[in-house]
Amino acid sequence: MRTQIITEVIDLLTIQCTKKLQETLKVPMSDLTDLTNEPLYSWHAHLFLYKRKKCVLVMNNVSRYNFLLFGLKASDFKQLDQIVMEEMKRNMIADGIDELTVHKYMKNFQSVTYTKTSERTIISQINEMISVFKYWMEIREHEGKEINIDDINRDLNRFVMLRLPKSYSGETMKDELQHL
Question: Is beta strand 53-60 parallel, antiparallel or unpaired with respect to 66-72?
């Protein structure tokens, strides 16, 4: 999928927000849809409710690697960039991506910027992952199992996405990060 090896600091991690998330964040959005020249550092994010709890699904533009932020409070949106970076790192490591590789990825950007969404296909895949998340939550609740968002995040990246080279977003992200 990628042809070049990243050799310099990217500076920005771009989070492309849906209108719903933009309204909640109340931060300035760039008019440009993507401020980085390296697609691996561009992500889409969408805010939704699950049983009155605010959730954000964040998905990488290249690999479709994704993770869910569950039960966010109003104060969390004031520091969403920090929460996204922490959860991104934690989830990548939990998905078996080497800590050194994750560290290399994380140190390649200095800050987070917010922009408008740019790709309908990504929004479609985000909506599909949200539907899968809700389905799995309902099954777990029906079976009386404890809800563990970390387990759900692992499962979301093992969900088949046919347009990906490895079919699974977790495996595709691992492969993309090997080029750092």
Answer: antiparallel
Q: Is the dihedral of CA 83, 89, 96, 56 positive or negative?
A: positive
Question: Which 3 state secondary structure label does DSSP give 113?
Answer: strand
Task: List the one residue out of 98, 70, 67 whose CA is nearest residue 85.
Answer: 67
Crossing angle between the packed helical segments 99-107 and 169-177, to the nearest 10 degrees: 70
Return the number of other C-beta atoms located less than 10 Å from residue 19's C-beta: 12
For residue 32, give Cα distances in angstroms to 17, 71, 79. 12, 30, 22
Model-level pTM greater than 0.90? no
Tens of pLDDT along the chain (180 residues) come to 443 433 344 578 999 999 999 999 988 887 766 555 688 999 999 999 999 999 999 999 999 999 999 999 999 999 999 999 999 999 999 999 999 999 999 998 888 889 999 889 999 999 999 999 999 999 888 898 888 899 999 999 888 876 666 667 788 888 888 877
